[in-house]
Design a protein that fits this description.
CATH superfamily: MFS general substrate transporter like domains
CATH topology: Growth Hormone, Chain: A
Distance between the termini: 49 Å
CATH architecture: Up-down Bundle
Oligomer: single chain
Order of helices and strands: HHHHHHHHHHHHHHHHHHH
Number of domains: 1
Structural class: mainly alpha
Strand content: under 5%
Helix content: over 70%
Number of helices: 19
Shape: globular
CATH class: Mainly Alpha
Length: about 425
């Protein structure tokens, strides 16, 4: 068992990086790998299960539904028991879900497995953000969050060409057996390597008090000012990158499986770079007096331009377009340090997990809804859909993003 490190009030950055962030990064790597893998194995699932766009969207989005439903209790657990124990236990559920997904014989079994995976990785980001809030000063949160989220980008990278390579030599069910083993390893690292550290202030011991506090967060104007733009930005980005980019490249861009996997690899690489670049840029701009909120707004504007280009169907396979998508699609992740900076450190777990729950709950409807909307158009003999289906679907995502941004920028009277 790891020893308590409460006495280390000023830990070195190297200590935090290797003993805290790196083990949690392994869990977040698996979270993003699970989240993104269906974009590559979608043709296999459609062929083996005989499903269309609507069922594929619902199956993949089951991850987001269980993920979001657990965010409220997750925040309470993180604030009461700490990120190490909570995350290590949760990852075992993800491993179980991978096994269920591998042995399932029908659509319902795979939905259950996917939901267990979503539940198990529900703390991948929030547990690390809680640890960052405990171990680092507030002015370093944006940088630490950005660098940490690079692990998610690496997980997305692993879900592209490496997965396609595995599928050339093994069935997709064997792939999920391997993912189950890797998830157990990540859980073990977190439990035995990460030290304990308590918050400076005590968390209310009464569960009812904590639930009432969560209720107050949900009616707080600060929460609902930033939640819509974060929901629209991250939901569209995760839905496209995690599933619909693959079918879009096939149906609109006319690419085969190998070429599609190559473009998805480029997207994932840009996503990885985007996490790091966003954190570094936000950190440096903040030191020069440029607030995080303004950085996020400009990032959303640029991302909206990328979505508009995708919706138009103009140069659908252009690598530069997909690089821009990967870098900019998670700009609204800055909403987490922006929001947590407005509350006490001991409340950070609950506030951020509430926001995460809203974001991922909406992502379930976004990813499944994209499938339902695309499915309104008739499919071809090979399960392909016309470009108009994606143009309307991505265009709706763009409209919702702009509405969320307008709400965030709307002037408000000060109390």
């Amino acid at each position: 068992m790891p020893l308590s490190n409460q006495s280390m009030s000023v830990p070195t950055m190297a200590f935090v990086a290797f003993r805290v962030l790196l083990p949690f990064a392994c869990g977040y790597f698996m979270s993003y790998l699970f989240r993104s893998v269906n974009a590559v194995i979608a043709p296999n699932l459609q062929r083996d299960l005989g499903i269309g766009a609507a069922d594929l969207g619902t199956l993949t989005a089951a991850y987001f539904l269980s993920f979001s439903l657990f965010q409220l209790p997750l925040g309470i657990l993180l604030d009461r028991f700490g990120p190490r124990r909570v995350q290590a236990c949760l990852l075992l559920s993800a491993a179980l879900g991978a096994v269920v997904f591998a042995v399932g014989s029908g659509l319902s079994h795979l939905v259950i497995g996917r939901a267990l995976i979503g539940f198990g990785v529900a703390g991948g980001l929030m547990s690390a953000m809680k640890a960052i809030a405990l171990w680092l000063p507030k002015e370093r949160w944006a940088l630490a969050n950005g660098v940490f989220m690079t692990a998610g980008g690496l997980g997305a990278l692993a879900a592209t060409l490496p997965v396609e390579l595995v599928l050339e030599h093994a069935h997709w069910t064997m792939l999920f057996w391997g993912l189950a083993v890797l998830t157990v390893i990540a859980s073990t690292l977190i439990f035995f390597v990460v030290p304990e550290r308590e918050a400076a202030a005590t968390v209310p011991s009464n569960l009812g008090t904590q639930l009432r506090e969560c209720g107050r967060f949900l009616i707080d104007a600060r929460f609902w000012r930033i939640a819509p733009v974060s929901m629209m930005g991250m939901a569209s980005g995760m839905s496209i990158q995690g599933l619909w980019a693959g079918p879009y490249l096939r149906d609109v861009g006319g690419l085969d499986r190998a070429a599609t996997a190559q473009v998805l690899f480029i997207v994932a690489a840009a996503l990885t770079a985007g996490f790091t670049l966003t954190g570094i840029a936000a950190d440096r701009l903040q030191r020069r007096g440029f607030p995080l909120s303004r950085t996020m707004v400009w990032g959303v504007v640029l991302y909206a331009c990328v979505l508009a280009t995708l919706a138009s169907g103009w140069t659908p396979t252009n690598p530069l377009l997909w690089i821009a998508f990967g870098i900019l699609s998670n700009t609204t992740v800055l909403a987490y340090p922006i929001l947590s900076g407005q509350f006490a450190p001991e409340q950070a777990g609950r506030v951020n997990t509430l926001l995460n729950g809203v974001v991922f709950g909406f992502t379930f409807f976004a990813q499944a809804g994209m499938g339902w909307l695309i499915g309104l158009w008739p499919s071809g003999a090979n399960g392909d859909y016309p470009p108009e289906a994606y143009q309307w679907t991505f265009g709706l995502a763009l409209a919702l993003l702009l509405l969320g941004l307008a709400w965030y920028l709307a002037p408000r009277r000060k109390a």
